[in-house]
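Per reviewer request, we include the raw input and output of the structure prediction for the construct analysed in the revised manuscript.
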Amino acid sequence: MRFRYALLLILVAFFAGCGETAAACIPIAEAANHIGARRCVAGKVVRVKQGNRGVHFFDFCEDYRTCPFTVVIFPGDLKHVGDVRQLQGKQIEIEGELKSYDGRAEIILTRPSQLRGDAARIPPLPKEYDVERHGKYSAGTFRHSNAAKNSSSRKKQSPPVSLEDPSLPLSPTD
């Protein structure tokens, strides 16, 4: 009986701790008040967009320019984090150091453990998805342009040499 009571107390303490963690998340509107601190921020991802050179952003507002918070994922981290495009339209919780960039708060997402709840269970990127090429080509694929093909076929070739050519010496003594 004591064992069951102790087990029940441990479970209650565990689930109470989980509730405190979820409650510790702040809304995106308060993120700028915590620059430099490590916090959990909660909000609905309105859009996941890809910027230059494969950098991904989470927009939490319709107009990203007036939004107080964003999440940034650099291409080198994307393969570890997973297919973040799956988070569009979902409520997420993300933990990390709040930094200030371009007048708003941001968290840089580098590993999946920063995401909580269902957001932490996103699938990996498709194998053919190449971040630097915006997902259009798989890594290692090289395609020639028509100009490259044409220039390589137009290389000047020296005419074939015939052994019966009278202008060529027959022996070193000639």
